[in-house]
Amino acid sequence: MAFELKPLPYDPASLEPYISATTMNLHHDKHLATYVTNLNKLIEGTPLASKSLEEIILTAAGDPEKTAVFNNAGQAYNHELFWSCLSAQGGGAPSGELAERIDAAFGSVDKFKDEFKTAALGQFGSGWAWLVLDKGELKITKTSNADLPLAHGQSALFGLDVWEHAYYVDYQNRRADYVQAVLDRLINWSFVAENLKKAV
Ligand code: MN
Question: How far is the CA of 162 from the centre of ligand 1 (A)?
Fold first, then answer.
């Protein structure tokens, strides 16, 4: 069964002025569409064609002959998560258990944001910054290219795309401003809290 390109879960203009409809449309209709198309081509007629995206990622992780499969499957998975990590009603502060755990792990939401921003800016070249649950502990991590927490035994709670295609049209080289806007205005804390609930 070939994977389908699912539509964005909201109007691509809804994240303006922080992320433009132009960026969201390019990101979904061109970048993600290409990953899904390439993944389908790579797995067609192979034993992977009947597997879930998660199974494909775990099978391809660390197998040098399956780098292209890993990259396209990883990016398909990461973007699905990423869309839901953003919301026009996002920003503000987390609540409940998530807020308690963020305070315990990082000291405060502001300290979490500072640490997350450092990771996102410290990712050299293309990749992702993450809030993960790793053996019961909240951690901030970063990965290159398509690499993702799932391949490292971690659960992704929040993922931020820091490939240039995610922000260049709106922010040019100012990755810091993009990261700050997402953390202050778009982060979908209720989705992050749902991911925490599923992961514990
Ligand atoms: Mn992307």
Answer: 7
